[in-house]
Write a structure and sequence with these properties.
With about 160 residues, this protein is mostly beta strands. The chain has a single domain, classed as CheA-289, Domain 4 (OB fold (Dihydrolipoamide Acetyltransferase, E2P), Beta Barrel), CATH 2.40.50. It is built from two helices and eleven strands, in the order βββββαββββαββ. It has a six-stranded mixed sheet, with no helix packed on it. A five-stranded mixed sheet has the order 3-6-7-5-4. A hairpin with a 5-residue loop joins strand 10 and strand 11. The N and C termini lie far apart (about 40 Å).
Length: about 160
């Protein structure tokens, strides 16, 4: 049985886990933000953290929750989603680490069609732990992808 570690965090009442290998850093500090005019509503702005410039996504906004009053002190989890892109995700609180085994994973049903802002792709699985706690597992590759992903009907692969 394969067991993986997840960083567990919270926004509102929602508890979610992030595969530890996807996490670059965790910060909880005063962060000065610069808002860019072309960013969508999910972005808080751009920040310079530990020598790196990154866009900050507010996970509450990303999943459609209401904002709550926030000062300069933010809790941020950073991800490197590809070779050149680093995102920071603003969360309410870091809870800790949890080990999740394969037999605790539940993939969302294909009939679940909550494709609004690709929420179904952002949280494709949940983990049901021994104590009955349910953790939504985040796929960091869909953090900034809010445009609906449509499946091709042909099924044929194109080679370039």
């Amino acid at each position: 049985m394969i067991t993986d570690e997840y960083l567990v965090a919270r926004i509102g009442a929602m508890v979610f886990g992030i595969y530890c290998r996807d996490v670059k850093n965790v910060y909880s500090e005063k962060i000065k933000l610069v808002k860019l005019y072309y960013q969508t509503h999910i972005f808080r702005g751009v920040a310079h953290i530990d020598g790196q410039v990154m866009q900050l996504i507010d996970l509450r906004r990303r999943v459609g929750m209401e904002d709550h009053a926030v000062g300069e002190m933010l809790t941020v989890i950073s991800f490197q989603t590809n070779m050149s892109t680093v995102f920071g995700v603003v969360v309410d609180e870091i809870i800790g680490m949890k080990k999740v085994s394969e037999d605790q994973l539940i993939t969302h049903s294909s009939s679940l069609n909550n494709s609004n802002a690709n929420i179904n792709l952002l949280f494709p699985m949940v983990a049901l732990l021994e104590d009955g706690e349910m953790i939504h597992l985040l796929d960091s590759t869909y953090l900034d992808k809010t445009e609906q992903v449509l499946e091709e009907e042909t099924g044929d692969l194109e080679f370039f």
